[in-house]
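User: Structure tokens for this complex, please. No commentary.
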Amino acid sequence: MGSIKIQQLTKSFGDTEVLKGIDLDIKDGEFLILVGPSGCGKSTLMNSIAGLEDVTSGDILIDGNNVTDLSPKERDIAMVFQSYALYPTMSVSRNISFGLEMRKVPKAEIEKTVADVSQLLQIEHLLDRKPSALSGGQRQRVAMGRALARNPRVFLFDEPLSNLDAKLRVEMRTEIKKLHKRLGTTIVYVTHDQVEAMTLADRIAVMKDGQVQQFGTPYEIYNNPANRFVADFMGSPPMNFIECVVLDDKLVIESQGEKFELHIKHGERLKDAGVETVILGIRPEMITEPKPHVAGALVHSLSMQVDVTEPMGPDTIAFGQWNGTEIQARLSPEAGVEAQLTGLIKVQVDTSKAVLFDAFSGARIDA
Amino acid sequence: MRASTTSHKLYKALFVTLLLAAALVYLAPLYVMLTTSFKGIEEIRNGNILALPDALNTSAWSKAWSSACTGGDCYGLAPYFWNSMRIVLPAVLISTVIGALNGYVLSQWQFRGSNFLFGALLFGCFIPFQVILLPMAMLLAWLGLANTVTGLVLVHVIYGVAFTTLFFRNYYVGIPTELVRAARLDGAGFFAIFRHVFLPLSSPIIVVSVIWQFTQIWNDFLFGVVYSGPGTQPITVALNNLVNTTMGGKEYNVDMAAAVIAALPTLVVYLVAGKYFVRGLTAGAVKG
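Assistant:
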């Protein structure tokens, strides 16, 4: 049990409005990721859900009960902090049991919970240690253990992996996902890392300037971004944004003095929009070396001058220029080597998943 | 390479010599006090001030403690020593507890105007004792606490809270707010968080506060002489009276023994907890 409904939530610090009317409907058992650049209000939103921050207006409902004015203690929420916030003078086992102790849980039950949780997180051998004697990854586990022990209705994770090194981060990411699958408790997870967002979430809320830009599944966010900001923020390497002149229902791209016309889906809408130029948003994996294409693809053949290549292992990112904008193409390693040698290659552009944005507002114009 | 190590050694020797000289200057009066206190009065009059005593003569010590005259009474310093204890112990305890709670609130539970309040409290550190002598005397009289131990405790607590609050606030500011947040989510309240999370972290700063307050209050003369009455005078006042009461010749040995007795408790506190004092002060200073 742990559905969360957030209605018209606003929060101001003095004259600065940090949250500008947030509406979110989080289902019971859902893994929700709040993602956005720093200062977008995601941490404030999380603290508001936890009850650590008073809201200016709006309501927060957990399982249908309005908890807006309840203290953190009464909300039955557990949180994992970015700094872990382990109690430095307490042993690992007391760190885990402290919340139960404060809630006057019988001693035998506390002991059983600590044993269960530490077994689940494989920290049994650390129970007598102090947090200062633990490594970063171990602290992370203890912080999660402290949250798990309480068996709350909702878990909040505030950038829990940002203090770990890259390898451990990937490991813990998988572990958190497994844990969620096993427990089925609602999780709200704040991060600024779009890879974490894509890999973990059932649904993602992309935030900017105190507003939710888009709320949807990772697939929707990635393939059908609501605006240019979302498209730019999600995905690595990032989406290419190429300003193109509109020619009837087609777009013009100039490369090496040669002009190419690109067909796009919903070309007719382009005519209706009546604009002279648009921003074509196309992901690097849609610009490749010529290869057999899948059904429904809208392929074109273009030339591309390659300035630099970055071999990633499974593929190579090639940097070039179209319409005076830097673009990135995702080539196979072999094509990458050739591109590096010749400097000029033929690429295949698939516009079936391309999206179009207004050149000024950044809003979608083809959706 | 070689030249630099030689000059390095030279510098070090010079440095150590300077330190030793400074230590000697500081220790000389203590040496004179101790040696004099173990000498007989004839030996003091005829001998060298820096000479060691011929024999360990403890009569001056017992006289200073139990039979020297302080004004009209001749009971030595003993009764006043216990007066001081009765003033110092509660005052240190209360001002440390209040300072800890103040510091906890001002650093972790900030509210509208809390920084102003902290500033106002700090102002208390800069008010000279003399300024408040009269108003405080009136307040104590109004409260019916004039010439009482309780009154002196109150005065020292009020003065001490400014300092103890400063110590604890600056120490607690270095403790991340996320700890409080985590504990609140764990269901701990204001006092539970203080007890279980903050207090166990506080030993260095408690030591600082206790040493500071103990020394300040034990060594206080002005408040002691103004606000005490017969039977409630602290040891500093008694020491002054003892030294100024002369019957026949001046008994330097008794004066010296009395002075050492009066200084002994603060010395003991320093020796026992001194290393924490420096550590706690710097911890607070760096993080504050």
